[in-house]
Specification:
Layout: H1 2-25, H2 32-43, H3 49-74, H4 76-84, H5 92-103, H6 117-127, H7 132-156, H8 158-171, H9 173-203, H10 208-216, E1 222-226, H11 230-235, E2 244-245, H12 251-254, E3 263-267
Parallel strand pairs: 1-2, 1-3
Helix pairs in contact: 1-2, 1-3, 2-7, 2-8, 3-4, 3-6, 3-7, 4-6, 5-6
Length: 269
């Protein structure tokens, strides 16, 4: 633990840059512990908060711009790629879309505070037409607010963090084992949860070809419901012929509109 502190003191800005860059690219590497450590060191007068904020913006803006441009040019394909590598692929895009729907472009100011949304927000901003200059300003402000909040917490509670570091140093390698085991357990839990969800979908799934065949044949026993969000409908205004549009978030409120005497097919992309 003392070695880790010395590395952070000696190469603090480089370490901070690397961790923030990795997280913004989409790798499962959390930058928050480093932000807290930098804040604590700043509280002890061993690092500069201004330089640390500059390092965060320099690390987060380039990858966010790349994702933004990919979102403008590739749209849903990029979001699909990001969700395939996410621990919660079925909700990461939806949560970001809902955030954009409620808050508009200001969502970029708070997206980094929500796990899983930080990487998804830039391509979605490109998809919905946020201007490049406005995106750069809002994304930079969001990075400053996010990193400033965590470094500020480290600055204020530097004494507490030092106590935690001392206890961890006393545990030695056991502390690393505990953290590693907790992280591995979380990832395993999410993986198992994901596999169960996929198995449940396979039980009650209809292929696009089968659905089209039945619709073309005039099968009156089918009701197709488009559960996409308003943002998805605006960016891709296409739908299956005859489908009812009820966003997933509105199903509870509008369930009486759904016929109970026919087969129901839901789709979201």
């Amino acid at each position: 633990m003392n070695d880790a502190v010395q590395v952070l003191v000696q190469y603090g800005y480089v370490v901070l840059f690397a961790f923030v860059l990795a997280e913004q690219i989409g790798l499962p590497i959390p930058a928050v512990p480093v932000l807290l450590g930098v804040g604590a060191l700043a509280g002890a007068g061993r690092m500069s908060l201004v330089l640390a904020l500059g390092a965060v913006v320099a690390a987060s803006l380039p990858p966010d711009l790349v994702w933004y441009e990919l979102g403008r040019r590739r749209g849903a394909r990029v979001l699909g790629l990001l969700c395939r590598i996410s621990l919660e692929p079925d909700s990461c895009v939806r949560r970001t879309e809902n955030l954009f729907t409620r808050s508009g472009r200001k969502a970029l100011l708070v997206a980094k505070f929500v796990p899983g949304l930080s990487t998804v927000a830039p391509p979605l901003a490109g998809m919905v037409g946020v201007g490049r200059g406005q995106f750069i300003v809002l994304d930079s402000m969001g990075a400053i607010l996010w990193s400033g909040a965590w470094m500020g917490a480290g600055y204020v509670f530097s004494d507490t963090l030092e106590l935690v570091a001392a206890r961890a140093a006393h545990l030695g390698n056991y502390a690393l084992l505990i953290v590693g085991a907790a992280l591995a357990s979380y990832i395993a839990f999410k993986f198992i949860q994901r596999q169960r969800f996929l198995r449940s979908l396979r039980i009650a799934r209809i292929t696009p070809e089968e659905l089209k065949r039945r619709l073309d044949a005039g099968d009156g026993n089918l009701v197709v419901i488009d559960t996409r969000s308003a943002l998805e409908v605006d960016t891709a205004p296409y739908a299956i012929r005859g489908a009812m549009w009820i966003a997933a978030e509105e199903l509870d409120q509008r369930h009486l509109e759904v016929p109970r005497d026919r087969e129901i097919v839901l789709y979201c992309t």
